[in-house]
What we know:
By secondary structure, the chain is α+β, with helices and mostly antiparallel strands. It has 9 helices and 20 strands. Strand 1 (7-17) and strand 2 form a beta hairpin. The chain is elongated. The two termini are 44 Å apart. Magnesium ion is lined by residues 51-52, 167.
Amino acid sequence: MNRDFRQIRLEGVTRRFSDAGRAAFNAVSGLTLTIERGEFIALLGPSGCGKSTALNLVAGLLPLSDGSIWLDDERIDALPPEKRGFGMVFQNYALFPHMSVVRNIDFGLRMRGMPAAEIRRRVADVLKMVQLIGQENKLPGQLSGGQQQRVAIARAIVIQPPLVLMDEPLSNLDAKLRLETRSEIRRIHRDLARTTIYVTHDQEEALSLADRIIVMIDGVVQQIGTPQEVYSQPANLAVATFMGYRNLLELDVERSDGERVTLTGPDVRLTGTRKLPLPDGRAWVAMRPEEMMVGDGAGSANTIAVRVDAVEYCGRDSLLDLRTASGHRLHVRATGDYAAGTQVHVHVPVERALVYPQA
Length: 359
Ligand SMILES: Nc1ncnc2c1ncn2[C@@H]1O[C@H](COP(=O)(O)OP(=O)(O)O)[C@@H](O)[C@H]1O
Ligand SMILES: [Mg+2]
């Protein structure tokens, strides 16, 4: 197998499941994607959207129902996992509980019959990389969750795999460790200069780690883009909703002028920006709570009159629960003191009110 591949290509990769008592369905449907050597790819989507299935298809732990996987010109989707030689890191670490840190890490190398001196050298290298020097002889049960996950990462990278696959590796860690381990994963990826596919349901993880994000919903890729693109220009309403555009208003299209669209409702009139063609009639406006501004000045453009329903203090700012006279609910982040019951206005920049056709 070509360990120095330039690209890994997925073409129409599909996995169908048929459970007893449930109609057959595609957990992953027509996944087509080219990953360049050295890239850090995040596969992002809500729980149950098919992320783990997709990763297991790449690893060879599940057979494809349709499609193909290629390393440059070599088709690899019929190869067993050990022939692909990818490194896997799972959510639950999957360490051998009765083996020491070193034994867990060098297991794969011993299985391959590598000479002892070479094994010692490689293990010493990865122990340094994951910062576990001094912990060599402990058992997994004697380590913290973060340390155990670093053993799992060491075990995956010690075989020097051309591709590292990680399935929600941080989800069992507490908030502080999650942040630390996240930076470690990014550093290790850079140091190794290998390719990584990282599965997560956490937008922030994907945004902070990845060169490119693949957003998947219900087994179907919705968008492939840089973190900036996925964050600020979601491809459709479903991606916008998943990416934290919590404020969704269904309104009547009054006027379209290129990308500019003006929409109206009983007590709302907004101009926003569209990327997709809009049918006549109704459309959705999606806005982030942190991209709307609260003020008391009525009359300025693109404002909505609202009443403060509730204030949730968050430290650096507050999350305001707002309601228009006709009952549209909005959430806006704001600094300053606002009391429930007050009348205020919220403003949104035209380019940050994204307009989408009906879902
Ligand atoms: N072995 C299986 N048999 C039947 N259905 C499965 C199997 N594995 C996963 N599924 C279903 O496929 C869908 C995607 O699952 P999964 O890939 O685990 O999602 P994610 O990792 O994004 O949470 C879910 O509806 C899940 O219930
Ligand atoms: Mg999963």
